[in-house]
Design a protein that fits this description.
The protein is mainly beta and 340 residues long. The protein has one domain: monomeric porin ompg (Porin, Beta Barrel), CATH 2.40.160.40. Helices cover 5% and strands 53% of the residues. The protein has two helices and 15 strands. It has a 14-stranded antiparallel barrel with strand order 1-2-3-4-5-6-7-8-9-10-11-12-13-14.
Length: 340
């Protein structure tokens, strides 16, 4: 596994040449359902709860608010003999701009994983859901409502004659595959996954007489960790995405220090930084995470370095992630999971 980190770094530089854009979190590794449904059940324990919150550009008129929640659990009495089945649910809500443009989704998740040997596991995942997309006309202003001196809301906007819907609902499918490798008697691990989000290319047209389809978002996700000391781990993560002509690339590097490395009472602090860019730099995101037994709390803040910093003065977005895991007792009752 000492070779893992150089491989990850090489992949990160290779992915700079590829290009993705959709609802995103800077702590992308703490929002697995937003990346790849094959990551369902990829944790130690039996049940997992995840909450993500992001408030971006709060001091700019077009601020963004995003939050999501995910639940996944491993089925112990599987009727599928081929492998292990995990199921779950996911929702997210995104609100942006003066038009209150919103994107709300509710979906069901399932992942089937097969243990290849003592160290390797292959997973296939599916997400099927419903997405609602809409906006509000009331707060919008158009050039035609400027009377030469001031804005006049009584003037016609010129949009009234257009046959436009202000909300739509469409089905949304995502498929993915993930391979994971874990080292015995060590905290070292390695994940690599591929996913196609909006795989069904749903219709998203607001105009009645026009058909517009949402491009599929393809991504590659790599996550690796190396135990370099009894109390120290190094983590590297990367996510490359592309949808239509738009692209996005994220990279993260962090060090985790274990206050208590004992298996049943693990406690750690992780410090790191994530970097997101499109063609050029977009934002730095310093992060800190607290790990204690079944809980993980992540806090990050985006420092905007794009051309938009004229409006943001380098301020980006606060982001929070909360993860809680449980494990079953021999009698089948849930308890706190002390291993992660």
């Amino acid at each position: 596994m000492i070779r893992t980190l150089p491989c990850i770094i090489c992949f990160m530089f290779f992915c700079v040449l590829s290009k993705a854009q959709d609802i995103h979190f800077s702590q992308f590794y703490n929002a697995p359902a937003n990346i790849n449904p094959a990551l369902l059940g990829s944790f130690v324990g039996d049940t997992r709860y995840i909450a993500n919150y992001r408030n971006q550009w709060r001091k700019v008129p077009v601020n963004y608010l995003t939050f999501s929640g995910t639940y996944d659990t491993k089925l112990k009495n599987n009727i599928i003999k081929f492998g292990d089945l995990a199921i779950g649910g996911h929702f997210h809500y995104d609100l942006a701009g003066d038009s209150n443009l919103y994107n709300a989704q509710l979906s069901a998740l399932a992942a089937l994983s097969k243990k290849l040997d003592a160290k390797n596991r292959l997973s296939l995942g599916l997400s099927a859901g419903i997405t609602a997309l809409g906006f509000d006309y009331d707060n919008l202003r158009f050039n035609s409502q400027f009377d030469g001196e001031v804005f006049n809301a009584d003037l016609m906007s010129g949009e009234e004659a257009l046959d436009v819907k202000n909300n739509i609902v469409y089905p949304d499918l995502t498929i993915g595959v993930n391979w994971s490798h874990r080292v015995k008697k060590s905290r070292s691990y390695f994940n690599v996954g591929l996913a196609a989000v909006h795989f069904n290319a749903p219709k998203t047209n607001f105009y009645e007489n026009r058909i517009e389809r949402l491009d599929a978002r393809f991504n590659i996700f790599i996550d690796g960790g190396i135990q370099v000391h009894r109390r120290i781990d190094i983590h590297a993560r990367t996510l490359a995405q592309r949808t239509g002509p738009e692209s996005e690339f994220l990279i993260g590097l962090a060090g985790r220090f274990y206050l208590d490395p004992h298996l049943l009472n693990e406690s750690a602090i992780e410090l790191g930084v994530n970097y997101r860019f499109f063609d050029l730099g977009d934002a730095w995101s310093p992060t800190i995470e607290f790990h204690h037994r079944a809980f993980t709390i992540g806090v990050s803040y985006d420092i905007n370095i794009s051309d938009f910093d004229v409006a943001t003065t380098n301020r980006g977005g606060l982001e929070l992630a909360l993860i809680y895991r449980t494990a079953r007792t021999p009698e089948g009752k849930p308890k706190d999971c002390k291993i992660f």
